[in-house]
TrEMBL record:
<dbReference type="InterPro" id="IPR023772">
    <property type="entry name" value="DNA-bd_HTH_TetR-type_CS"/>
</dbReference>
<dbReference type="InterPro" id="IPR009057">
    <property type="entry name" value="Homeodomain-like_sf"/>
</dbReference>
<protein>
    <submittedName>
        <fullName>TetR/AcrR family transcriptional regulator</fullName>
    </submittedName>
</protein>
<keyword id="KW-0238">DNA-binding</keyword>
<feature type="domain" description="HTH tetR-type">
    <location>
        <begin position="4"/>
        <end position="64"/>
    </location>
</feature>
<dbReference type="InterPro" id="IPR050109">
    <property type="entry name" value="HTH-type_TetR-like_transc_reg"/>
</dbReference>
<dbReference type="Pfam" id="PF00440">
    <property type="entry name" value="TetR_N"/>
</dbReference>
<dbReference type="GO" id="GO:0003677">
    <property type="term" value="F:DNA binding"/>
</dbReference>
<feature type="DNA-binding region" description="H-T-H motif">
    <location>
        <begin position="27"/>
        <end position="46"/>
    </location>
</feature>
<dbReference type="InterPro" id="IPR001647">
    <property type="entry name" value="HTH_TetR"/>
</dbReference>
Length: 190
């Protein structure tokens, strides 16, 4: 197994164990053992379990952002573009339930330091802030502080994905899909 394969195996195993057992109940030894590497190898890649958690969080956030950016719509209609982005984001959650469950458990957890959450929001998901600022500039979105708007969007996303992960058939129901976006949009519009 190459160095990169070992690192990815550690991240994949940590994801599974953190979701199933919790961060505090998961030991570095159990991560290494399940990943099929020596504990020393884990510490070669990550200085601590906290560092592994941070890296896992940022890696998944980047994967999420890349998937959304690859399908960004630029129709010039803010509401239509935002609706498309909302649907792509929830599609990603449904296609990646383990990763989304990780977000459900850890996005607001003290296990993820505020600076790391802010890095994810302001760097990795910067296109979201740009979209909000664009909507505020045109008067379509409420002129609330950007960081508060971003956190509100994030909370609504977590709530909607929790619902649709618990009721996957409802994401196929057009009325539920439309209602989830309408609640999201109405919370932001001017």
């Amino acid at each position: 197994m190459s160095r990169l394969d070992k690192k990815q195996a550690l991240l994949n195993t940590a994801l599974t164990l953190f979701v199933s057992q919790g961060f505090h109940a998961t030991s570095t030894a159990s991560i290494a053992k399940q990943a099929g590497v020596a504990t020393g190898t884990l510490f070669h890649h990550f200085s601590s379990k906290d560092e592994l958690m941070k890296q896992l969080f940022l890696t998944i956030k980047q994967e999420f952002a890349d998937a959304i950016k690859a399908q960004l719509s630029q129709q010039g209609d803010l509401k239509a573009d935002t609706k498309h982005l909302w649907q792509v984001a929830i599609d990603w959650a449904i296609a990646n339930p383990l990763k989304q469950e990780f977000f459900q458990q850890y996005s607001m957890s003290p296990s993820i330091p505020t600076a790391i959450r802010q890095q994810a929001m302001n760097d990795i998901l910067s296109f979201m802030g740009e979209l909000i600022l664009q909507g505020q500039k045109t008067g379509e979105l409420a002129d609330y502080p950007l960081s508060l708007m971003q956190e509100s969007c994030h909370g609504q996303y977590l709530a909607a994905t929790r619902y649709f992960l618990d009721h996957p058939d409802m994401w196929q129901d057009e009325a539920h899909k439309q209602a989830s976006f309408s609640m999201f949009w109405n919370a932001m519009k001017a």
